């Protein structure tokens, strides 16, 4: 589903590569924790999957397509098939839960009847049943992140990218958020989650890809956050 083939990324005016010679193959339906210190290249890895950045060397393939060869006009179509969740939720403050999730479908022209049917289903899936009419400021941080996940997933993307999704949430609530991501993964969506949250990584034992100075230093199935000796 996602293949990094000897990928090096050097940003303009930087001499140190953000990623160097990265080879990672992520298959459909996998769940990956991407870990590593600040500045190790995790966000760059995610941005390359979205074609927000281009590799300096090497190739990134997503769903069988070499992104170096994907025309610019096809990039919006690629991004529509990839849901994104961020540390800071990024909800629309003047829209309620239903409207925030519905908006993701309205902008891609889905019919009203379809929206009315699928939004409540996804709101329930993320554990917000009965809260569809709440405004973001009436929700806890964990609940706001659930809305953001619902919005990212409502279009049934093939891939969900999550950049520090539990970064602003207390540990107990983070477990609930992680369970929602796990549930989404079980529907067949490939999930790549960049995180510093050792407790979560250790509790869920998924595949762990660790970056250090832009290099993959560990790729371990059912891994833990720190190196297990
Ligand atoms: N747009 C940019 N222009 C120049 N350098 C950048 C840019 N984005 C990232 N970098 C550099 O690339 C390296 C990797 O950064 P990246 O944001 O991918 O790391 P990260 O692992 O996601 O860090 P964090 O955990 O702090 O989010 C860092 O040295 C960073 O300074």
UniProtKB/TrEMBL annotation:
Annotated gene: ftsE
A Pfam match: ABC_tran
Protein name as annotated: Cell division ATP-binding protein FtsE
Cell membrane found in the keyword field: yes
Domain ABC transporter: 2-228
Family: Belongs to the ABC transporter superfamily.
Task of the protein: Part of the ABC transporter FtsEX involved in cellular division. Has ATPase activity.
Entry's Gene Ontology molecular function annotations: ATP binding; ATP hydrolysis activity; transmembrane transporter activity
SMART domains listed in its UniProt record: AAA
GO biological process entries: cell division
PROSITE patterns: ABC_TRANSPORTER_1, ABC_TRANSPORTER_2
Cell location: Cell membrane
Keywords: ATP-binding, Cell cycle, Cell division, Cell membrane, Membrane, Nucleotide-binding
UniProt GO cellular component terms: plasma membrane
Membrane topology listed for this record: Peripheral membrane protein
Subunit structure: Homodimer. Forms a membrane-associated complex with FtsX.
NCBIfam families linked to this entry: FtsE
């Amino acid at each position: 589903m996602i293949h990094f083939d000897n990928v090096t990324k050097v940003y303009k005016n930087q001499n140190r590569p953000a990623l160097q010679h990265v080879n990672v193959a992520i298959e459909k339906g996998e769940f990956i924790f991407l870990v590593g210190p600040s500045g190790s290249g995790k966000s760059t890895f995610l941005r390359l999957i979205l074609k927000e950045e281009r590799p300096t060397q090497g190739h990134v393939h997503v769903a069988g397509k070499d992104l170096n060869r994907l025309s610019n006009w096809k990039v919006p179509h690629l991004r529509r098939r990839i849901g994104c969740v961020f540390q800071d939720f990024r909800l629309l403050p003047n829209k309620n839960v239903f409207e925030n999730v519905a908006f993701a479908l309205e902008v891609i022209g889905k019919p009203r009847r379809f929206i009315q049917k699928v939004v409540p289903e996804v709101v329930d899936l993320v554990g917000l049943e009965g809260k569809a009419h709440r405004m973001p400021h009436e929700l806890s941080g964990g609940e706001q992140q659930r809305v953001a996940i619902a919005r990212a997933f409502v279009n049934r993307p093939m891939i969900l990218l999550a950049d520090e999704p539990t970064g602003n949430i207390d540990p107990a609530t983070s477990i609930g958020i992680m369970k929602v991501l796990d549930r989404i993964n079980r529907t067949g969506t490939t999930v790549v989650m960049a995180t510093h949250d050792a407790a979560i990584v250790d509790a869920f034992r998924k595949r762990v890809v660790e970056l250090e100075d832009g290099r993959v230093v560990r790729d371990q199935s059912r891994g833990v956050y720190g190196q297990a000796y």
